[in-house]
Amino acid sequence: MTHHQDDPNHEDEDRTTPSAREGKDADVVHLDVARAGRQPQRPDADRQDSDDRTADGPVLGGEAVRVDRPGPTGGDWRTALEAKARSRQPIVPLWLRSRTEAVETLKWVALHYLHVAGYQVVRLPLYGGRLTARAPRGLLRLVGGVVKWTFDLEGEPVRLAAVQKADPEVYLKLSRQRDSRVRLRVLISSAALVTLLVVCLMMAEQATTAQWAALAVAVAALGILGKPADRPLIDRAVVPSTVEKLTSDIVVRALTVLGIGGINQAMAKNPKDAIRFVAPITRDGPGWRADIDLPYGVTVADVMDKRDRMASALRRPLGCIWPEGDSSVHEGRLILWVGDKDLSKTVVKSPLVKAASHDVFKGIPFGCDPRGRAIVVPVIEQNILIGSQPGQGKTASVRVLASAVALDPSAELWIHELKGTGDLDPHEQNCHRYVSGIEDEAIAYAADSLALLRKEVMRRAASLKALPADLCPDKKVTRQIADRRSLGLHPLVAVFDECQNLFAHPDFGAKAGEDAEFVIKLGRALGVVLVLATQRPDKDSLPTGISANVTIRFCLRVAGQLENDMILGTSAYKNGIRATVFQPKVDAGIGYLLGATPMPKVVRTAYLDTPATQRIAKRAHALRASAGLLGGHALGETPEHVTPTFDLLADILAVVPPSEAKVWNEVIVDRLAELRPEIYGAWAGLEGGAKTAQLTTALKPYGIKTIQVWGTSEGGGKGANRIGVARDDITTAITHRDRGQAS
Ligand SMILES: Nc1ncnc2c1ncn2[C@@H]1O[C@H](COP(=O)(O)OP(=O)(O)OP(=O)(O)O)[C@@H](O)[C@H]1O
């Protein structure tokens, strides 16, 4: 391919040699002159030009430069080295790097061979019986073979053929050869027979055990000789299909049946090279790992979508197939991990069950990835958001986090379990603030907590600023600072389980959302950590300011892309991080973890049942009590009330006089904000539509419906039809409520 570079002389040349375009009377002198005038000139320019002319026809003007040039690319050697560095094979194999993984692999190998050995030892009598049964046939075969060899019986058919053809010359030749051969072989066979007899005589004088041993060896040898061609002596200890070795053929077969256009086209064009294996398929933890480059244009997300089909193609349960991308290399790099065991059937034990104490600065042992590697979730300077459909293991994962925090006496624990089932009750004894419930009082308590946290963050910011530089060079909370309790900068972990009940609450939701966002944005460096769990990740139940700012996300099974991206962040679904692949119920406790590890990971959380959690909580309580670090709720203190109680309906009546029968929502909200800025201020700050909707939602629980109201703006102007409330509806609702309360 040639490419004409822009050249200032190009036009001139065209103008001076018009006939050249027709190919007649071409005036080469003009061109050369023009070229000679071109500065600077490459040393090989002339050769190049003449090459171009001969290869691609006449070049009328400008310099022809090949787009695809022959020879080496001449790239920077450092860049090449850097590219190579990215695909370096580890010096220490991956499985040896982590202690748990090395132990797991060695355990797997040891168990495998122990099983094989045990299986065969148990069957030794069977094998002995088989050998004995086969020994007579072996003896016959041995005798027959020796006789055949000694008397050269293989040659018999040829000699007979010579006789039948009546060819004396050939017959004589064959007979002579046979005689000499048989003479030698008879000698050898006789010697062997005599040796055997001598051995037998010698054995007769030996102890009986030696005689039995010799007999056993002889029987075994004869038994092996007598083996039928189609029946093996030894049974296989491991039926191959149970943990079938993953081979490249199997992987290619599995990828080609997924029905992905890009793979099929590439396979049709070049079946040998379409799917490349960048490293040998190896054992990695309790399973096989294949590192694959997918065909050009195919992404890991395409494969991820067809995980179930892949499971069928690999003949494994779905819970064994874990394709993973490595986008640090490129979007088509697939790490296919095929486990021996179904992840959904593995129960991950938590090290917290036995731990005497825990240091939250070292992170929290959260669970395992499919390869059995322990996953630690950092909490300091982080905020954690957990989401899923109901019953997929949210509370169970919160339990693990809360238990680890409880075991660190220096950390303050606040728990708000807004479902009211008491799943986190065991830790009540360790909490500075604790509530379990779904009713308004519990929600108000949780809202109070967020308001208090907001204050606490501001207090901590000032304290941290005032610390001398030598004590706190990075202006961050460290273990050393956390241990100085008097500074009040110890880790404070506040858990809000089923937080949608708080954020979507008509009265407390908006303010709580704002406070949470504030704490998430500023509390990180100050040791204040929020752990939020929700089963309804939509924009009303989880303010976008929160979902956009959390640093660690854990998403168990969700139904669709929207929920997936609310928890895991925008574009997560598009990038192939899809918590929709997990199966409802079956995969409870399995989710995608983002932000805790360099790459997003599938994680099975450790499971702590209620008795285990109770034991941990008791241990943590003793630890805290002995360190004198119990406080607040754990000591039975009643908290100060921060969020003022208010009555929305009474407040509306207060701002809408009887003279106004119907008023627009937005007007009511503005008046409410004037009445109680600390409560309704956030509502008034919303944009027009959202402001109206806020009041509509807040009135819904009272059974009050908004209506179209004709009116004019308070500042005057044109009349308009907008959403509003009838004052009578409010008074009726109050009457109903009062009657209900009285009864
Ligand atoms: N890591 C795990 N290992 C094994 N089983 C688990 C795990 N996590 C959860 N489960 C199972 O899933 C069930 C539901 O878990 P959990 O109560 O935590 O779900 P949830 O998402 O909080 O539910 P809801 O939304 O109804 O509150 C548990 O009772 C348990 O049997």
Uncertain regions spanning at least 5 consecutive residues: 1-59
- CATH fold-level topology of the largest domain: Rossmann fold
Give the amount of beta strand, in percent.
5-15%
Q: In total, how many beta strands?
A: 20
- Assign the CATH superfamily of the largest domain: P-loop containing nucleotide triphosphate hydrolases
CATH class of the largest domain: Alpha Beta
Determine the structural class based on helices, strands and strand pairing.
Answer: alpha+beta
Write down the overall mean pLDDT.
Answer: 82
The level of helicity is 40-55%
Broad shape? elongated
CATH architecture level-2 label of the largest domain: 3-Layer(aba) Sandwich
User: DSSP helix count?
Assistant: 27
Please tell me how large the radius of gyration is.
Answer: 42 Å
Biggest pleated-sheet summary: 10 strands, mixed
Strand order of the largest sheet: 9-8-17-16-15-10-14-13-11-12
Q: Bound small molecules, which ones? A: adenosine-5'-triphosphate
Termini gap: 92 Å
Number of domains: 6
